[in-house]
Write a structure and sequence with these properties.
Layout lengths: L10 E4 L8 E10 L5 E8 L13 E7 L5 E16 L4 E8 L9 E5 L8 H11 L5 E4 L11 E6 H11 L3 E7 L2 E7 L6 E10 L11 E9 L5 E5 L12 E4 L11 E5 L6 H16 L3 E7 L8 E7 L9 E12 L14 E10 L18 E6 L15 E4 L16 E2 L19 E6 L7 E7 L16 E5 L13 E5 L6 E5 L5 E4 L4 E4 L4 E2 L12 E4 L4 E4 L9 E2 L91 E5 L2 E6 L2 E5 L38
Parallel strand pairs: 8-11, 12-13, 12-18, 14-16, 23-25, 29-32, 30-33, 31-34
Antiparallel strand pairs: 1-4, 2-3, 2-19, 3-6, 4-5, 5-6, 7-9, 10-11, 13-17, 14-15, 17-20, 18-19, 19-20, 21-22, 21-24, 24-25, 26-27, 27-28, 35-36, 36-37
C-alpha cells in the first residue's frame, strides 16, 4: 500500500499508535454546555491488524487548521474503535472520542456521601472525582454552595450524580481543549466563560471575502415564551411552624406571562434565604431559553462556553451584541486522498451552533433525584460500646443494607426520624430502636435524602420474645434493661389469648408506680392476692397513689369471694381528713394480737362504742383505766355486777365517794362517812363494834337498845 502522510493537511489526528499510523479523513461531533461531547472520526491506515487495546481507552488529539495553518485541537478518549472494511488503497476504521467525564457514566453506586462533617456539593464532587483519579478540572464559582447534612448517591451513575448536584446549585460546565488534554470547567456566573479566537464575527448577505473564516453563513434569532414565576416550598421539622414558601418572578416582559407559574415541593432548603437563592437559579434556568440564536459558520474556534461579538450584520439591531455558545456541531471532511501526491482541494470545515446573550447566565436543567420505590431494610448503628444512641428528637442512625463503606457506627448516616403512632406536645408514644436492631426505612416522596424509620422487624439474630409458633396466642410488649441487661432483666406487658387460659401479665423489673387522679374501680370476680416482698434477697417497695377516690369491690358480681391480706412487718394507715368507716353487714369482726400491744389514741374528740348485744372484755393480766375528766357508767336495763374473784377491790376518790339507791345513800368524804336511808339496818352475824372518842346517838322519837345482856360502862 502507498505511504500515508498527514503533513500539513487541514485536519489530522495524533494517536498512541504512532505518527501517521492512522490518518483522519473526516470527523463530526457535538459539544454542548453541561453535557458530554461526542465525536465520530473516520480513519484510514495501512494496517489492518490494529488491536482494540492499542487505542480503546487511550487519549487522542485531532485538529482542524485555521487558514494560517495553526491547528485548533480537540482532545478526548477513544471509547469505541471499529474496523469497517478495506477501501481502494487502505483499511478504514471508525473511532468515537469522548471526554474523560464520560467514564463517569460507566460506574454507579449506592453510597452515603455525607455522614458526620457537613460538606457542600463542591466538596462531595471533589471527593468523588479524586477518588476515581480524575484531576483535569477546575472551579470558578461566585456563590459557595450550601452545606448538606446528608447526600445519597442511589442507583445513579457517577455522571448522573455529579451533574445532578451541579444542576441543583446552578453550576454549568464545559470543556476547554488543548493538545494533550481537555479540562472540565465548572462555573456559575456570566463571566465564567472564555473569549473565542474568532472574537468578532460577521454575517454578510453576499460574502465579498470568502477567504475569511470568521464569517457566519446563517443566523436565526428566536424567542420562546417562558414561565412567569417559579415557586417552591420545603419543611423544617425543627421549625415546623415556619412557612418556607418562596417565589421568584421572571425578568422577561411578555403579555400575561405572570399567570404562568412553576411550583414544586421539597425544594431542598431549610432556610428561607437559601430558598430564595435556589428559586432565583430555577427562574434563571427558564429564562436562559427565552432569547437564543441558531446558526452556522466556519469559525474553527467555536466551542461551548466561548464568547464572541457580532461585528457585522445586515440588521443593525444585531450588530455589537455579545453571545455565548451553548452548543456546537462540528463537521470536517478531508476530501481527496491521503496518499503522497494526492489532491486536497475539496477539504471543508463547517459548524452549526446555538448561543444566548452574554449577559444571560446559563443554568443547566434541574435533574430530578432518583426515587426509592418502596421501603428498605437497615440496621440501627451508634458509637462503639453503646446500646442506645439517640438525640432530643428520638432520632436514630442507621446503615442501609446496600451501604458497602459504612462502619456501622455513628458516622454511617445522619439522624433519621422515627415514626410513632402518636406524637403530641410532650405526650404520645416513644420507642427508641436499639443498636443492632433491623428497622424498616421509608422515604418522604421517595427522596433518598429524606429517610424516615417506619417500623422494626425480627431476624435470626433478634428473635421474638415468645417462642413461635408454640405461643402464637401471646402478644405484648417486652423490653430489655440497659445498659448491660440480660434476658432476665426486662419490663413486660403480655397478653395470653388462649381459650380458657386468658391472662394479662405485667412485670416490672424494679418499681411499679400507679397514679389515679380520680376514681379507681377494681372488680375481682374470684380471689385476689397481694404480696409485698420478694422470695429472693433483693428488697423492693410498692407505692400506690390515688389522686381522688378508690373503690375496690370483691365478689360483687358473683356474690361471694374474700380478701386476704398478709403483711410481714409494719402497717400504717393515716387518714388526714374525714372519717374511717367499717361496716360489717353480716358476720363477725375479730382482732387478734399474737404478740405485742394494742394502743388506741384519740388525740382530740370522743370515742363511742355501741354494742347492740353483749360485750365481753377479758383481760388476762392487769387492766388500767385512766380518765382525766368524768367517767360515767350507765346501765339502762339490767344489773351492774363487779366481781373480784381473787384479790381486793379498791376505789379511791379525792373529794367524795357516794353510793345512791333511791332515797338512801352512803357518802364518803375526807371529813367522814354519811349513811342516809328511810331505815338503816346494821347487822353483824358475830358482833358489831363502834369505837370512837365520842359517839352521839340521837333519836327524835323512841330510842331502843336491846340485847340479852346490856352493859353501859363509863
Amino acid at each position: 500500500m502507498a505511504e500515508m502522510n498527514q503533513g500539513d493537511r487541514p485536519i489530522g489526528v495524533e494517536t498512541p499508535l504512532g505518527k501517521d499510523a492512522v490518518v483522519l479523513t473526516s470527523f463530526a461531533g457535538e459539544e454542548r454546555i453541561s453535557g458530554l461531547f461526542d465525536f465520530e472520526l473516520q480513519l484510514m491506515s495501512n494496517r489492518g491488524d490494529i488491536e482494540p487495546a492499542e487505542i480503546v481507552g487511550h487519549k487522542v488529539d485531532f485538529y482542524v487548521r485555521f487558514p494560517d495553518g495553526k491547528p485548533r485541537y480537540f482532545n478526548g478518549h477513544v471509547n469505541r474503535f471499529a474496523y469497517t472494511g478495506e477501501g481502494d488503497r487502505a483499511h478504514v476504521y471508525n473511532a468515537t472520542v469522548v471526554p474523560w467525564m464520560w467514564f463517569l457514566t460507566k460506574g454507579s453506586d449506592c453510597k452515603v456521601h455525607e455522614t458526620g462533617t457537613q460538606q457542600n456539593a463542591q466538596d462531595i464532587i471533589d471527593g468523588l472525582l479524586s477518588g476515581l483519579g480524575f484531576t483535569d478540572y477546575s472551579w470558578d464559582l461566585n456563590r459557595t454552595p450550601e452545606k448538606r447534612d446528608y447526600c445519597v448517591q442511589y442507583r445513579e451513575t457517577h455522571y448522573e450524580f455529579v451533574t445532578r448536584l451541579l444542576a441543583e446549585e446552578g453550576i454549568y460546565f464545559y470543556f476547554k481543549h488543548e493538545q494533550g488534554k481537555h479540562e472540565l470547567v465548572m462555573t456559575d456566573h456570566v463571566n465564567g466563560v472564555f473569549d473565542c479566537e474568532d472574537a468578532d464575527v460577521r454575517l454578510l448577505s453576499k460574502l465579498s471575502q470568502p477567504e475569511l473564516t470568521d464569517n457566519l453563513s446563517s443566523w436565526h434569532h428566536e424567542y420562546e415564551f417562558t414561565t412567569g414565576k417559579f415557586a417552591h416550598k420545603d419543611y423544617d421539622f425543627e421549625k415546623p411552624s415556619t412557612d418556607l414558601l418562596v417565589s421568584k418572578d421572571t425578568l422577561v416582559k411578555l403579555p400575561d406571562i405572570d399567570r404562568n407559574e412553576i411550583y414544586d415541593h421539597f425544594g431542598g432548603y431549610m432556610a428561607k434565604a437559601v430558598g430564595d437563592e435556589l428559586a432565583k437559579l430555577r427562574m434563571e434556568e427558564q429564562e436562559s431559553g427565552f432569547n437564543s440564536v441558531t446558526g452556522s459558520s466556519e469559525c474553527r474556534s467555536f466551542s461551548p462556553g466561548g464568547r464572541f461579538a457580532m461585528a457585522a450584520h445586515h440588521n443593525s439591531g444585531e450588530r455589537g451584541g455579545k453571545w455565548v455558545l451553548t452548543a456546537v456541531q462540528h463537521t470536517a471532511d478531508q476530501g481527496g486522498h491521503y496518499f503522497s501526491g494526492g489532491s486536497h482541494s475539496d477539504e471543508i470545515y463547517t459548524n452549526k451552533f446555538r448561543c444566548i446573550p452574554a449577559d444571560v447566565v446559563f443554568r443547566p436543567p434541574y435533574q430530578a433525584k432518583p426515587r426509592v420505590h418502596g421501603i428498605q431494610s437497615a440496621v440501627v448503628v451508634g458509637p462503639p460500646g453503646d446500646e442506645i444512641y439517640t438525640d432530643e428528637y428520638g432520632r436514630i442512625k442507621v446503615q442501609f443494607q446496600w451501604d458497602r463503606l459504612g462502619k456501622k457506627d455513628d458516622k454511617s448516616s445522619f439522624w433519621v426520624r422515627v415514626m410513632t403512632p402518636w406524637a403530641g406536645n410532650n405526650w404520645g408514644m416513644v420507642h427508641i430502636p436499639r443498636i443492632g436492631h433491623e428497622v424498616i426505612i421509608d422515604f418522604l416522596d421517595g427522596d433518598p435524602d429524606r429517610p424516615v424509620m417506619t417500623g422494626m422487624v425480627y431476624n435470626k439474630e433478634n428473635m421474638p420474645p415468645y417462642g413461635l409458633p408454640d405461643n402464637m396466642t401471646q402478644s405484648g410488649i417486652k423490653t430489655r434493661s440497659s445498659k448491660g441487661g440480660s434476658g432476665a432483666n426486662y419490663n413486660e406487658i403480655r397478653f395470653e389469648d388462649k381459650k380458657d387460659s386468658e391472662e394479662i401479665c405485667i412485670h416490672a423489673e424494679k418499681d411499679l408506680n400507679q397514679t389515679v387522679e380520680n376514681n379507681r374501680t377494681v372488680t375481682v370476680g374470684n380471689n385476689e392476692t397481694h404480696k409485698v416482698g420478694f422470695d429472693v434477697q433483693d428488697p423492693g417497695d410498692q407505692s400506690l397513689e390515688v389522686y381522688n377516690d378508690q373503690t375496690i369491690k370483691i365478689g360483687h358480681g358473683s356474690g361471694k369471694g374474700g380478701q386476704k391480706v398478709e403483711i410481714y412487718e409494719d402497717r400504717d394507715v393515716t387518714i388526714e381528713k374525714g372519717d374511717d368507716l367499717l361496716v360489717i353487714k353480716s358476720g363477725d369482726q375479730k382482732v387478734t394480737l399474737d404478740k405485742g400491744d394494742q394502743i388506741i389514741t384519740v388525740s382530740a374528740g370522743d370515742q363511742k362504742f355501741t354494742v347492740e348485744g353483749d360485750q365481753i372484755t377479758k383481760v388476762n393480766a392487769d387492766q388500767i383505766i385512766t380518765v382525766k375528766g368524768d367517767q360515767k357508767v350507765t346501765v339502762t336495763a339490767g344489773d351492774l355486777i363487779t366481781k373480784v374473784s381473787a384479790g381486793k377491790s379498791e376505789t379511791t376518790a379525792a373529794t367524795s365517794l357516794e353510793l345512791k339507791c333511791g332515797a338512801s345513800s352512803i357518802k364518803l368524804t375526807p371529813a367522814g362517812i354519811t349513811i342516809k336511808g328511810v331505815k338503816v339496818d346494821v347487822e353483824g352475824t358475830a358482833s358489831v363494834g363502834l369505837s370512837a372518842p365520842k359517839i352521839d346517838v340521837n333519836a327524835d322519837g323512841i330510842l331502843t337498845l336491846k340485847g340479852s345482856m346490856a352493859k353501859i360502862n363509863s
